[in-house]
């Protein structure tokens, strides 16, 4: 399994990721899915608790293009970028085809409901429920506990959770114990993208690893996340990838001298 600065990433395509979920459900086995980007890598590096959660996660795919490029740079490439939003669409389509139930939990007020409507428009047969939950710092514990009870009561096969990252992964880990046959996806703010409140950047912007700049044009309040917190870890990531690449270079073996024939 490839790793970036110690963080594991699974070497899978989108189709393979979806197949892993559907095959697991057919066997009565659930799991957890995390889609790391640069900011998640930063949190992973700074938290032993998060590192432990990652080691117990069933599927980790590279959401951020800088991670994909760095994996290529260090010669441990993955087939493609897999965003949480793309997974939400693809897994929901597969769920509709196989009769599995889906729950969208979390998000800003109204986001989960409108995202569910968008998913139904593409897959009218999709069985999808929602539980909106926009957590407030002063009431987070109670709100997450109430949401978790609703998730357990839903008995959904697949749950997409849109909460702040640390809250999201710890909640998923706890729910995994309560619902071992359910797949849990941490999708952050993906509901906004599914329901059209926020646009994805053009593909060329993503390929150039400039999605952060695109996002700052519409969400300047994120300047600290990208410019203060993000830039240092991005620089360290590139240096780490180059160092790993150098360490993986084969050491040339000098050719043995040809024996001198006598006579």
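Q: What amino acid sequence fits the structure above?
A:
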């Amino acid at each position: 399994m490839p790793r970036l600065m110690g963080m594991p990433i699974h070497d899978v395509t989108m189709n393979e990721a979806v197949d892993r979920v559907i095959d697991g459900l057919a066997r009565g086995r659930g799991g957890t899915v995390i889609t790391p980007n640069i900011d998640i890598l930063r949190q992973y590096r700074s938290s032993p608790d998060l590192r432990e959660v990652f080691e117990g996660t069933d599927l980790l795919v590279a959401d951020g293009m800088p991670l994909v490029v760095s994996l290529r740079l260090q010669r441990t490439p993955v087939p493609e970028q897999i965003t949480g939003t793309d997974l939400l669409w693809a897994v929901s389509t597969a769920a509709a085809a196989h009769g599995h139930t889906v729950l969208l939990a979390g998000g800003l007020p109204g986001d989960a409901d409108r995202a569910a409507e968008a998913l139904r428009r593409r897959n009218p047969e999709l069985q999808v429920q929602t539980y909106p939950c926009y957590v407030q710092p002063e009431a987070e514990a109670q709100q997450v506990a109430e949401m978790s009870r609703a998730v357990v009561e839903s008995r959904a096969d697949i749950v997409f959770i849109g909460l702040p990252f640390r809250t999201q992964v710890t909640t998923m880990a706890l729910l995994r114990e309560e619902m071992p046959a359910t797949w849990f996806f941490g999708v952050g703010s993906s509901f906004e993208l599914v329901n059209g409140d926020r646009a994805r950047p053009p593909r060329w912007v993503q390929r150039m690893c400039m999605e952060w700049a695109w996002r700052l044009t519409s969400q300047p309040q994120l300047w600290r996340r990208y410019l203060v917190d993000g830039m240092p870890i991005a620089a360290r990531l590139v240096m780490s990838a180059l160092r790993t690449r150098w360490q993986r270079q084969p050491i040339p073996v000098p050719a043995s001298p040809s024996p001198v024939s006598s006579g």
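Q: And what stands out in the fold?
A: The chain has one domain: 3-247.
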